[in-house]
Amino acid sequence: MKQEYTITVYTENQVGLLNRIAIMFSRRKINIESLNTSPSEIEGIHRFTIVVNETEDVVRKVVRQIEKQIDVLKAYFNTNDEIVWQELALYKVPTEEIAEKAKVERLLREHGARAVVIRRDFTIFETSGHREETDKLIEVLGPFGLIEFVRSARVAIIKHSSGFHEKLKEFEEAAPRGTTPEASPAGSREGVFSM
């Protein structure tokens, strides 16, 4: 049964790696719902956060394939219950419409949003949360002439994780560079590298 999975990939920051990883998904006809890259807690190591809607078996196989890339240190996959995650959203609306037809303070409070730019012709609100939460504010602002909307990719932290730097130490003690344990969900007890 398909469900939403978040794949976390720790990599060395090499040119072309993102393209190689994206090709693995397109070859398997897996749609990437969200993709974020950022530095990790370890200097020189980057973290990819990839969201897909697939079966566990398919996700496990693609994670194994990702780990075979020379610049990839480790990849994990998790369900939404196993992570803490957020997305950032920005909403641009006409200032005149908002000022005339809505009590802005109440609107902001109800949806955990705040104004980040207020100009004569437009106002930009910002909020963060799960997709359902940011979508609710689209519905609320729609009648006031929503000009533009953008949502960031997911950022996520694995709940039961002591951090990648600890796993990196364990990995280097237990396995020489170039060997990769079988992909497993983070939090499981399988393999050297499970979080």
Shape: elongated
Alpha-carbon distance between the two ends: 24 Å
CATH architecture of the largest domain: 2-Layer Sandwich
Just give the CATH class of the largest domain: Alpha Beta
Q: Please work out how many helical segments DSSP would assign.
A: 6
Average of the residue pLDDT scores = 84
Largest sheet: 5 strands, antiparallel
Give the number of DSSP strands. Answer: 9
Radius of gyration: 20 Å
Q: How much strand content do the residues show? A: 25-35%
Question: CATH superfamily assignment of the largest domain?
Answer: ACT domain
Helix content: 25-40%
CATH fold descriptor of the largest domain: Alpha-Beta Plaits
Tell me what the structure shows:
The protein contains six helices and nine strands, in the order E-H-E-E-H-E-E-H-H-E-E-H-E-E-H. The chain is α+β, with helices and mostly antiparallel strands. The chain folds into two domains: 102 residues, Alpha-Beta Plaits (2-Layer Sandwich), CATH 3.30.70; 66 residues, ACT-like. Chain A, domain 2 (Alpha-Beta Plaits, 2-Layer Sandwich). Strands 5, 6, 7, 8 and 9 form a five-stranded antiparallel β-sheet that branches. A four-stranded antiparallel β-sheet has the order 2-3-1-4, with helices on one face. The longest helix is centred in the first third of the chain and has 12 residues. The radius of gyration is 20 Å and the shape is elongated.
